[in-house]
Design a protein that fits this description.
seven-stranded mixed β-sheet; Beta-lactamase; Penicillin-binding protein 2a (Domain 2); about 675 residues; five-stranded antiparallel β-sheet; extended; 3 domains; about 20% strand
Amino acid sequence: MDRKTADRNATDRKVINKKLNAFVAVMLLIFLILGTRVAYLQIFESERYRTLARENSLRLISIAAPRGEVYDRNGVKLVGNRPLYNVSLVKLGQSKEDLEPLVQRLSQILNRDPEAIWARIDDPSLRRYERIRIAKDVPLEIVSQIEENAVNLPGVSIELEPMREYPYDSTLAHVLGYIREIQPKQLEQYNDQGYRMGDQFGQDGLENTFEQYLRGEKGAVQFEVDAYDRPIRSLGVREPIPGNDLHLTIDYRVQAAAERALAAAVQAAQKTGKESRAASAVAIDVRNGEVLALASYPAYNPGMFAGDVRAAEAEEVLTSPDRPFINRAVQSSYPPGSSFKMITAIAALESGKITPEFTVHDPGYYWLERMYTCWTYPRGHGNVNVEKGIQVSCNTFFWTVGKMIGPELIAKYATDFGLGSKTGIELNWEASGVVPTAEYKRNVVQAELDRRYNPQFEALEKEYGPLIESAITDEEKGRLTREMQKERARIQAQYDRYAWELTWRDYDTLNMSIGQGYNAYTPLQLANYVATIANGGTLYRPHLVRQITSPSGEMVYEYQPEVLRRVSVSDENLAIVRKGMSLVTQHGGTGFGVFWDFPVPTAGKTGTAEVVGKDNNGIYVAFAPVENPEIAIAVIVENAGQGSATGAPVAKEMLKAYFDLDVQENDPRAGRVNQ
């Protein structure tokens, strides 16, 4: 070996030694770091990771809590809970082949397609230890069959879950509402409050607005699982805590009477050829604003959503042309007809434009550029003062005083009595109603003008614009332009003719003064306005919940009457209006035919409101007793005819129930004392 080769080999060895030393140093450093980390974890973090490992082997299965129950003012249970039997399966590591016989047995017992059961079992979102719900709300005979075949159904169990029960079917449906599985948007909104998919959630009515009180606190079963997520042993149960109970202001007997009478009124109207399909009624305690009854017809059975509701059943109710989900007592606004005349009377008396002795001679009509006929035409009511005007519902009297005082004053007192404003009751989707004003009319008419004529103007431009632009000769262009201008003038003439309505006219005042025209109020607003007249001028906020109590009976919350305001009307003028309403049920009054034999002195006002293109709405408002009033009522029967024939009988049935004048033996409130 020559010297040059020896030097090169020595250099290579030095390089290799350096690399080897660097590698050994790096390895020593890595082992030092790992050793330090292991020592740190063993010494300082051992308890933490021991806890994590232990928690990783623990699983929780939540237990649904019973929702709080709901009672009427006298302790009648309106909503409760009943046991719901569900069939569940826990996979214990079996293969699909192992599960095949079990699925076949279940499909036979449950009378279900095996594919539907497999779809549940193969849900990728489920973990091995979780129960798979195969069937919900199964009958007891199915439960018995599963228990008898338990040996051949490994992993199958019967779960007991509380289910909402509405013992009176559709009674109070619109007040109580219903529950169903929480919807995605609701879950997103309430996710931080412990809700999960599959949880029950109030969807409407008090079930929704008092969800946080009613829901309860979930319980849980804790157990240990092995490395394959298979249950090993149970570690205990935390029992669920039921939700709080609601005690309502509702009087079940008055509510039930209202619902029966509304259905009867609609059916009776239909037999006479009327197109009536719906109705509503409200009763309020005039002394504190407590709602005694709030009924809307037709209704639905909220219990249908508590169990395993079939899509076809739900679709039938949801798409019904009768729209049973609408709470007409709160969500629908109606022209009040003559039930509004007390507002016009109060406005006239308070303005000083008339006195109690002021009279109008009614020949059966009123003349303002044309003849407006009173409902007795061609007969008239003769000389009419304010009390008689209310008693006989004389349109001529109220047209006269309405024209004297003007729409602004009428609107002022309507607003003061809470008409045209949401009451703030504990229900969703409450309508505001409308107290007519010149501005409101202008906006409504302008919107209708835009809806009707803007498309016509746009279509004209769309049709003629391209033709004019593409015209070859000036003669053709001129002809097309003239045609377009002529058609535009025709449409504009129609627009201008209807635009005359943009301005408030005297006939609008006449309509307003007798509760027609743009007047629109909910039955709840009408009942509350009558309650305010009855109690001497105190406008309360209507409410449905008296108390909330815990499962142990402790008071969680107690509602107190809330005074919105004292109306700006003198006691003397309110007394005059009350006297006129009391005459309605006496001889000569429009309500005498229904109340002539009623043992409790009552006051009322009939109303027959015109509906364009349909039969009139029948309306009746009332309070009783005449002295020291307790209850106020408003009834509207849609498209049924006169209020004296349709609305008044409903109010009578409600008053009979309130005063215990017709107690049935099987009624849960028989023999109760009014509170």
